[in-house]
Amino acid sequence: MKEKACGTFSVDGKVAVVTGGTRGIGLAIATALCEAGAAVTLNYRANREAAEQVKKKLTGRFDHQVVQSDVSTHEGARKLVRATVEKWGRVDILVNNSGVFDFCFIEEMDEEFFDRMYRDNLKSIFFTTREVIPEMKKRNFGRIINASSISSHLADCGLSAYGCSKAGVDMFTLISSAELAPYGITVNAYSPGIVETDMTRPMIRERGKEQVKQIPLGRFGTPEDVAALVCFLCSDQAGYITGEIIGVDGGMFKVQNPYRAWQR
Ligand SMILES: NC(=O)c1ccc[n+]([C@@H]2O[C@H](COP(=O)([O-])OP(=O)(O)OC[C@H]3O[C@@H](n4cnc5c(N)ncnc54)[C@H](OP(=O)(O)O)[C@@H]3O)[C@@H](O)[C@H]2O)c1
């Protein structure tokens, strides 16, 4: 058993799909799963340059493939799962990581903006989950991990569409965990606070100094902070954990004014 980001936890020999796996949090998750011995399909939608860089980085080191598909469509989700089953004959782990983020006040928001958040953040999870269920049921084993957000339960102005889509992810996680439990499939979610990626870099540049004051641990998260949790949730050892939405937020959700402790 290889031991790296997963410590003593085992995903050796498992086959994983990571949506949005060529950048940010998804890339850290895919890399950690590879390092821990899984074969991994890394998915992306449009950024070919990032995908090519990842291919170069992983080729010759890990058993992987990079697959372009838009998982906010039924066809895209099917293409992704089929490509994985064709290559390795199965899917054991699905990490529904892909997502989009944007601010817009309700008064200025058009229908397309709202629909885009729902399609990319929530409907995509429905499509990919539905595709992997028959594969996981065959082996009476599965790990599905969804990307939630601190914004699913902490109201933030301008994030009504994003926050509601992620609240939907939480409920989808709970209901699918119960529906799939009889087949040995667990379903959990990670709920990041602010992790430094392409998604958050503009916001951090603009008001990072203020935002970091709201994080008890005094720093923004790294993609690797999230990957460590996801690797554990994917492992054999996490088999009795399901229906959980777990914060990776430096304590941000739980407290107010943590900066006072830093100013003493
Ligand atoms: N970063 C944070 O602070 C934070 C906080 C809370 C929650 N989250 C959640 O964590 C997840 C990852 O965030 P991140 O910061 O790593 O984002 P990111 O750096 O913007 O990367 C997003 C990835 O998702 C892919 N993607 C988006 N829509 C897709 C679709 N329909 N089909 C296929 N791929 C798609 C992108 O593909 P391309 O490369 O082709 O564009 C990209 O690889 C998201 O669900 C996000 O909402 C992040």
Short summary:
The chain is of the alpha/beta class and 264 residues long. The protein has helices at residues 24-35, 48-58, 74-88, 111-139, 160-180, 201-211, 223-234, 259-263; strands spanning 15-18, 39-44, 64-68, 93-96, 142-147, 185-192, 245-248. Strand 5 (142-147), helix 5 (160-180) and strand 6 form a beta-alpha-beta unit.
SSE inventory with pairings:
Blueprint: E1 15-18, H1 24-35, E2 39-44, H2 48-58, E3 64-68, H3 74-88, E4 93-96, H4 111-139, E5 142-147, H5 160-180, E6 185-192, H6 201-211, H7 223-234, E7 245-248, H8 259-263
Parallel strand pairs: 1-2, 1-4, 2-3, 4-5, 5-6, 6-7
The structure holds NADP nicotinamide-adenine-dinucleotide phosphate.
Explain what you see.
The structure is a single chain. The protein has one domain: Rossmann fold (3-Layer(aba) Sandwich), CATH 3.40.50.720. The longest helix is centred in the middle third of the chain and has 29 residues, at 111-139. It is α/β, with parallel strands linked by helices. The chain has a 7-stranded parallel sheet, sandwiched between helices. Helix 1 (24-35) packs across helix 7. The chain starts with 14 loop residues before the first strand and ends with a helix. Helix content is 44%, strand content 14%. It has helices spanning 24-35, 48-58, 74-88, 111-139, 160-180, 201-211, 223-234, 259-263; strands at 15-18, 39-44, 64-68, 93-96, 142-147, 185-192, 245-248. The chain has 8 helices and 7 strands. Helix 1 (24-35) links the parallel strand 1 (15-18) and strand 2. 45% of the residues are buried. NADP nicotinamide-adenine-dinucleotide phosphate is lined by residues 19-20, 22-26, 43-47, 50, 70-72, 97-101, 120, 124, 147, 149, 192, 194-195, 197-200.
